[in-house]
Design brief:
Layout (H helix, E strand, L loop, with lengths): L26 H17 L10 H8 L4 H8 L3 H9 L1 H12 L1 H6 L11 H7 L2 H6 L27 H18 L1 H6 L13 H19 L1 H23 L13 H6 L32 E4 L4 E4 L4 H24 L1
Antiparallel strand pairs: 1-2
């Protein structure tokens, strides 16, 4: 006979059985589950950037800025090795994509060991270096305060390479003082005849950066990146000055976002004078030497790449003439 359910009084709710089954706990089972989980985790393949084919990896890296490539090289040893092995190729493509204009304005000085023996002897001649010193201010015949003198035993000292060295040192120094220029803070001026320690240290740091650029293409690309940033910042800074109505390069928001130097191919003011003093930085906008505007074709014309060889031959010819003159005096 079916048992009748108890009658509920008014306001009472029926009882519901919420008792849950107690889970069985076994240390042996837990160990097996843990081992199974570890095995499944180890068997899974996690795709990383390094797992990509080298050509695809190269195409990704070449789209980065030099500063980003340096940061990427610190991710792991495998990426660092790949970047170092492909440094020349990566740097060349980055420069072609981002800094094609700047690379023609700022060439890399050659190493002395890249010229022949006759040229090395002529370039190391003390009298020639004294007669062709481009590291001095023409007004005071003293070394530039913001440009370090290259090691003549390492760097070629033909006129082209000396000017190239000066320009790269200037770019690095100009980038160093961008914060002061943006904030409107004065750059420390050095009295004539004084050689403060902070300036000597800064000069050696700048020298080290330029020397790295001579040996490492990515360091050279990083200098071009820094100068593009300085140029963009300077044009924006001077453009915001309503009282400054000087002619400047046309630059829009798209040019800034592109982070390339393509807008510098447009018509703009030429860089005729070398900033011989940091005081020139205040009015410096786009320093782009070694080129001139051709009105007939309306484009920039750059210094030919063969100029280095011409200057080396000139140094050799100078040494031969000097040797002949010395022989005549002896006879």
């Amino acid at each position: 006979m079916r048992k009748e359910e108890p009658k509920l009084e008014d306001g009472e709710e029926p009882l519901i059985d919420t008792t849950a089954a107690l889970p069985l706990r076994s240390k042996r089972t837990e160990r097996r589950q843990k081992k199974r989980h570890q095995k499944e985790t180890a068997s899974k393949q996690h795709a990383t950037l390094w797992d990509l084919p080298s050509e695809i990896l190269h195409e990704i890296i070449r789209l980065l800025k030099p500063s980003a490539i340096f940061r990427l090289s610190r991710a792991n040893q495998a990426l660092r090795t790949f970047i170092l092995e492909e440094e020349e190729r990566i740097a060349r493509q980055v420069i072609e994509t981002r800094y094609a204009v700047l690379a023609q304005c700022f060439i890399v000085p050659r190493l002395l060991n890249t010229v022949d023996e006759e040229a090395r002897t002529a370039l190391l001649d003390g009298k020639r270096q004294g007669a062709h010193n481009v590291h001095q201010s023409s007004a005071h015949k003293k070394p530039y305060q913001h440009i370090a003198v290259p090691d003549a035993a390492v760097v070629c000292t033909c006129l082209t390479c000396l000017l190239a060295w000066n320009n790269l040192c200037l770019v690095v120094d100009f980038a160093h003082w961008q914060r002061n220029l943006d904030a409107g803070e004065p750059i420390p001026m050095i009295p004539r005849g004084k050689f403060p320690e902070w300036n000597n240290v800064l000069g050696e740091v700048n020298r080290g950066v330029v020397e790295k650029a001579i040996y490492g293409p990515l360091y050279y690309a990083a200098i071009l990146e820094a100068h593009l940033k300085s140029t963009v910042g300077s044009i924006k800074r001077h453009g915001e000055n309503k009282g400054n109505r000087r002619r400047r390069f046309r630059m829009d928001v798209g040019d800034v976002r592109a982070e390339t130097d393509g807008f510098l191919e447009r018509s703009g003011p030429p860089s005729l004078d070398f900033p011989f003093h940091r005081d020139n930085y205040y009015m410096l906008e786009a320093y782009l030497p070694n080129r001139a505007w051709n009105k007939e074709v309306e484009e920039w014309r750059y210094m030919p790449a063969s100029q280095h060889e011409r200057d080396v031959e000139f140094a050799k010819a100078w040494a031969r003439r000097r040797k002949e003159e010395a022989g005549k005096e002896v006879s």
